[in-house]
Structures are given as structure tokens and as C-alpha cells.
Amino acid sequence: MGGVKAAIAVACVALLVAGCASTTQGRAVSPLYDPFRAGGLPAEDGPSGIREDAPNPEGDVEGTDGGDADTLATLAVNDVAAFWADNYSESFNGSFTAIEALESYDSESPLSPEICGGQTYDNPNALFCPQDDLIAWDRGVLVPLGQQFFGDTSIAALLAHEYGHAVQAMAKIVDGDTTTLVSEQQADCLAGTYVRWVAEGKSPRFALSTGDGLNHVLAGILTLRDPTYVAGDAPYLEQGHGTALDRISAFQMGFTSGASECGKIDMDEITQRRGDLPLTLPEEGSGDPASGDVEITEDVVTSLVNTLGEVFQPSEAPKLSFDAPECPDAKPSPPASYCPDTNTIFVDAKAIAEMGTPADRQDYSLLQGDNSALSVVTSRYALALEHERGEPLDDAAAALRTACLTGVAQSAMSENKGLDLVLTAGDLDEAVAGLLTNGLVASNVNGETVPAGFTRIVAFRSGLVGDQDLCYARFK
């Protein structure tokens, strides 16, 4: 049974407005890596949600209360079905048949029914039940919270994931030997193909901007990542949905390359995509998981800068200061700034510590932790590397090149090379969350980012799986 295993996390919508970094202007390059595009589409803000002229939802929903949540979910299922009716044959053999059995339940009610052999009380979820050809959703918690914090179209994306499981069965791209992780990653990818169709303006029911609207959809995906496992739970890595980076990268594959690529996802592809990045936390002596987070102090920031010197070995390492930034040739980008004139990284110790304070769904906020802060400081170090090479630092390409070089650094710090600081499982998800919320890791010397969180993440992932030369060649 596919679907979302846990309730959609309640994320503070104010965090998704890129409040810390302004948007930069610049010159376009190739479509996928263009600072002003998202997966090849122009990156721009605009209306997102149910269209004013959307048709009424169609279909009988068992258990419905006739409320707004069921209206939205039914409309979403109608829209995804319309997408596959028009596009299925372009990518898959066989034929598409729309799912007609729909069911709604209220996870807050002790009388909530059993669906697909499982209890639904206290189980905010959405699912596709293959034996019944049924799509079901929780109208009590899941849909209204997702709508509130991530927007109407995020619910369409959520149900597109569930519909993806139905499409897998029709296309026979999974079988009894397929691991849960592969099945879920394929479904994320298939959801991405649908969301692109919406973003292209082809949906009669939903609209989605490629700037803030798509950022919200990606934030919804991030909150539905698997928990961070400890080493002893490694077998569960193939029985879940994947990390935030796994899920978003699979979604991006579908968004940029289409449904035919989704069927190519298998364990080998996922393993290659993950590279050597850490997936589990070590256990403490008690058997409990290690925290994975450190308190961000001046000593930790100093250790990070020294570690980055070991990783990159620049000819002239940047200086580190905890004083207020003074720079004649760049604007401050708090909580961390880089001044080319003096080759100095300025860090506001109090503000960077606050940025690194752990927070998550139970705190009614998007994911945050130590690497939310450390990745920002790393990005300012990346600007020093670019300055040493004589690259421009104040345009849009510099913003994405900075994110890419930050990815290179984080990949190096994920490996056990005797460095002072080493990233652990979950740290990269914290960096990805920051790329959506404030964009500072993907900002230029003046703290200006690019419009689409989608493209910021593409740049960061380029560095995780690439090297410095790729960053300079791809983002120029």
C-alpha cells in the first residue's frame, strides 16, 4: 500500500516567502540550469490553487461529509485522471483506466472505518488500495492542514502520488519483488510529471506558479520525508518513501524529464543518486540515536571554516570575523556575509545560532537544524573561492554557482576523511529546507537569490554529485 505514512507536517507558511534573501537579475543559460527558470519553465510568481472557472468535482465519494476538504480532494483526483487520460500512452504500454472508487474518512473520529485492511483512526493519510482499485484520503487532518500550509495544489500533488501507484500497476513497472522505496520514488516522479502539466497551464482545475507556488509544493514533499534512522534500522531504508532529498529529486526527475523516466527508477538508480551521502545516524551507548545536531557556537563556526580550508585548500583562505560586517563592495547578507575587498566572512554569532536551533513539524515549522546554519556559512566560503578565481559575484549565475559549490563541500564533509566537522544523516535535508525557505545558500554576494526554490535545489544537488569544475562550467 502506497501513500503518505504520517500526517502532513504543519509548516509555517511565512517561512516559504524567501524572507531573508531578495531576488537577483542576470543572464540566462541552458534551460535546466537557467536562474530564471524552473525545470525549463519561466520562474515567476502568480496565481496558484483552484481556478475560478474550474468545473465541479465529479464522482461518488464513500463516507464524504460534503465539506470543502472532500471537494478539493475529489477535484484533485479528477484532474490527475484527466492528465493521465491524455498522457498515459506517450510513456507506457497498455491502457489507462480511471480510478472510480474514492473514499473519505476523518482520522480524528474513533468511528473512522477500516480501509484496505488498515485502521484509519488517528492515521492522517492518503493511499491507493490496489486490491480495491481505491483512492482514499483523510479529510479530518491531512487535507485541511496541507491546504492551509502548502496550498490547494499541494493536495493535487499529494493525490497525484497516490494515483501514481495506480499507474504503476497499469503500466506493470512494478511487481511483487519491487521494494517499497522504489515504488514510492517512482510515484513521486509520476507526481512530478502531473505537476509540470499544471505549471504549464494545461490543467482546467488548478493553477501553479513556478516561483512561490512550486516552492510550497516542494515544501509539502519535504515534510513527508522518512524519519532519520539509526544504523541498526538500515533495513527500513528500503521500506519507506525516502529522505527529503530523495523525494524531491525523484519529483524533479518527473517534472523535468517526463513519465518515461519514472519507470527507470530502481534500487541501482536510487543508490547512484544518493552517492556516498550519510543515511543513518550512529547509536549512542544506550541504543538511542545520536542527535546529529550540534549547538552553533563561534568555535563550531571557526571549526567549519578550518574544515572548508582543508576541503578546498584555497591559495588565500578567507578570514573569519564575528564583528558587524563592514564592506565597501558588497551588501550584508545576514546572518553570514562575505566581503571581497577584505576577503572576510562576517558571521553574526547570535543569529547563526538561532538559525541552527533544531525545529521540525512538532514545532509548527519547516525542518531546521545545525546544517541550516552551517550550510549558509559554507555558501559564503564558496563566494571566497569564486572571488579567488575572478568570477563575478553579484549576478544570478553566482547565486547558483554558490549553491553548487556548497553542495561540493557538503559532499566532502559527508565522507569520513578525518575532518573536524562531518555531516550526518538528516543534515542535507536541513540544507534543502533552507534552500526553500530563505534561499541564502543559493544567493550571491549581496544576498540575492533566484526565484525558484526548484532551481536552487537543482544547483545544490549538482554539487553533491559533481565537483568544482562542474559548478564553474554549468553556472556561468
Automatic annotation (TrEMBL):
Residues 1-23 form the signal peptide. The keyword Phosphoprotein does not apply. Residues 59-68 have a biased composition (Acidic residues). It comes from the Bacteria. Residues 40-69 are annotated as: Disordered. Keywords: Signal. The keyword Signal applies. This is Peptidase. It comes from Mycolicibacterium hodleri.
